[in-house]
Each structure stands twice: as structure tokens, then as C-alpha cells.
Design a protein that fits this description.
It is a single chain. The chain is mainly alpha-helical. The protein folds into two domains: 95 residues, Orthogonal Bundle (Rna Polymerase Sigma Factor, Chain: A), CATH 1.10.1740.10; 74 residues, Arc Repressor Mutant, subunit A. The protein contains nine helices and no strands. It is globular, with a radius of gyration of 19 Å. It starts with 5 loop residues before the first helix and ends with a helix.
């Protein structure tokens, strides 16, 4: 199978700014969605996008083509997400020591009938609540549209582990949504 990004990658290696822009446009939405789901914030997603593309441009010469560029790109994205989460964990530990931050009240909005955007937000929250491996599996398969084989390459797992993790992720996601009173989201998608 020929990598559809092969020519762009070669041009990027040669310093072609237009090719870099095209690769950015081709992948920015997927990287953003992945970052937004995992970090649960726009700021986090923006940081993941920035770090991912900086890493890609810095290390594009190291891409050997053993997998598609898309697969390599999402391995870099996953690494950027994990780095962001580690940094947030350090930041959160410092924030717990600042007593004034704990005095800021949380919002109290609870609508009676959720809208489609609210259901999507609850789905995002439920995905973010999945354990790391399950969250990665759901995001890569359901949201990024990767095949099981591409997931295997990105995650460095066996095909059996990819399938079983995806199965457990779907089951856990259904439970999380049921607990929040929105199990119909998974049933409507045919995952019940």
C-alpha cells in the first residue's frame, strides 16, 4: 500500500513550507479532537496540537516509512498527549497546595433536556473518564477512523490486545453513559 502522504513528507524533509502547511491542514482536526477528548479542555488541545506539529516537523527526517505517515503522526500525537498529561499532573499537585484556588465555586448548570451538543459533551466526558489504554483505543478507532492494523502499529500492541481493549472500552463507555443517564448514545450508534 502506497502512503498517500509520501510526496508531502519528502517535500517537508526538503524544507518546503507549502508541504508543511498541507500536512498541517490534513491532520490538525484529528489531532485537535484527540487532544480535546483526552485533556478535556480547549487549552490542552491547543497545546497538544502545537507540541505534536513541532515534534513532527523537528523529527520528520526520522520517519522511515515502515508504517503510513498517518500512523506515525498519531504515535507522535499520543506521545504529546501523554507529555501534556504528565505536566498537568505536576501542575495539579502544585495547585492543591494553593488554598485560594479551592475557594472558586463550580458552576451549577443542570439542564432538564440535554441538547445534541450536551450529549456530545457528555460522550466526550465519558471517553475522557476511560482508563488510558481504553481511551486510546476508542479515540483511534471510533474518532480517528483507524483500522485495527493501524492501531496495532500506533500503540505497539498485538492485534489481540487491540481487539480486546476496544471491546472493553466500548463496554465501559456504555456503563459510564448509563450511569449518567445517556446510555442511548451507545445504543443509537449500534454498540449496545
Amino acid at each position: 500500500m502506497r502512503d498517500p502522504d509520501h510526496e508531502l513528507v519528502q517535500r517537508c524533509r526538503g524544507g518546503d513550507g507549502a508541504a508543511q502547511e498541507l500536512l498541517y491542514r490534513r491532520y490538525v482536526d484529528r489531532v485537535w479532537r484527540h487532544g480535546r477528548l483526552v485533556t478535556r479542555s480547549r487549552e490542552g488541545a491547543a497545546e497538544v496540537v502545537q507540541e505534536t506539529f513541532l515534534r513532527v516537523l523537528r523529527s520528520i527526517g526520522e520517519f522511515r516509512g515502515k508504517s503510513t505517515f498517518a500512523t506515525w503522526m498519531f504515535a507522535v500525537t499520543r506521545s504529546a498527549v501523554l507529555a501534556y498529561l504528565r505536566e498537568q499532573k505536576k501542575h495539579d499537585a502544585l495547585a492543591r497546595e494553593a488554598p485560594l484556588l479551592r475557594l472558586v465555586p463550580a458552576g451549577e448548570e443542570t439542564p432538564v433536556e440535554p441538547t445534541d451538543s450536551e450529549l456530545r459533551e457528555r460522550l466526550r466526558e465519558a471517553i475522557a473518564d476511560l482508563p488510558g489504554a481504553q481511551r486510546d483505543a476508542i479515540v483511534l478507532f471510533e474518532l480517528c477512523g483507524m483500522s485495527l492494523e493501524e492501531m496495532r502499529n500506533v500503540l505497539g500492541w498485538s492485534l489481540t490486545r487491540v481487539k480486546s481493549t476496544l471491546f472493553r472500552a466500548r463496554r465501559r463507555l456504555r456503563v459510564l453513559l448509563d450511569q449518567r443517564g445517556h446510555g442511548e448514545v451507545m445504543r443509537e450508534r449500534g454498540n449496545a
